[in-house]
TrEMBL record:
CDD domains: AdoMet_MTases (cd02440). Its EC number is 2.1.1.-. It comes from the Bacteria. This is Class I SAM-dependent methyltransferase. Keywords: Methyltransferase, Transferase. Residues 46-142 form the Methyltransferase domain. The keyword Transferase applies. PANTHER family: METHYLTRANSFERASE, OS06G0646000 PROTEIN. It is an enzyme of class 2 (transferase). GO terms for biological process: methylation.
Amino acid sequence: MPETSVAHFYDELADDYHLIYSDWDASIRRQGDALDALIGQDRVEVLDCSCGIGTQAIGLALREHRVTGTDLSPRAAARAGREAARRSLSLRTAAADMRRLPFPDGRFDVVVCADNSLPHLLTEQDVHAALAAMRRVLRPDGLLLVSTRHYDDLLRDHPVSTPPQVHRAADCADGGERTVTFQLWHWHGDGEHYDLEHFQLLPAGGEWRVKVRRTTYWALSQDRLAGLAAKAGFVDARWRMPQETGFFQPLLVARADK
């Protein structure tokens, strides 16, 4: 799929993205705390190169890191900036392709690419380009944090859907308005790529209004992604699991070579 389709997917989702979470503010704090613990330093320069509407970037800004957020989706990046400002936080945001990051060499102490964003890139060439760009903007020995779905399990089982998630507005009493989200996955013949249909059901005057958004992913195994990171100039790569970190997805943790 052309890269514009990924931007379109997240442009269309930007206003409703928080509804994926049962409590978005709690997720912001929880994910920021988990990533901060892995960073292990105070007030470092962080680039979140797939910031979306700001879940991880705002979480890290709450921990007083100096965060810059970029995303392929202009609408998502703009919302991240607004959400940070609403919380009286400083977060610089811009629309940018992670394969062509618009920053000087060695600009950041940490680069974050979370929430299964890297697997939107569908070829080794594009994944390598993104990882090489992340390496370029990191200082020597800088920290890389990449999270993906647990693709080793998914490549074995090839699931065709995700369970529905129900979000109830925080100001609603029991029985108040709810939204429902779930996904359908259509695997390609190679067994590695899959088309995703994201369904969002929203209440509308006693009926349900359905929004469907589509995009494509590459289910990268952990060994394969670690190998691509090594080729892009990262060392000491290891996978850290959710039960160890408290983050909701497996994290590839690596250092920029010196």
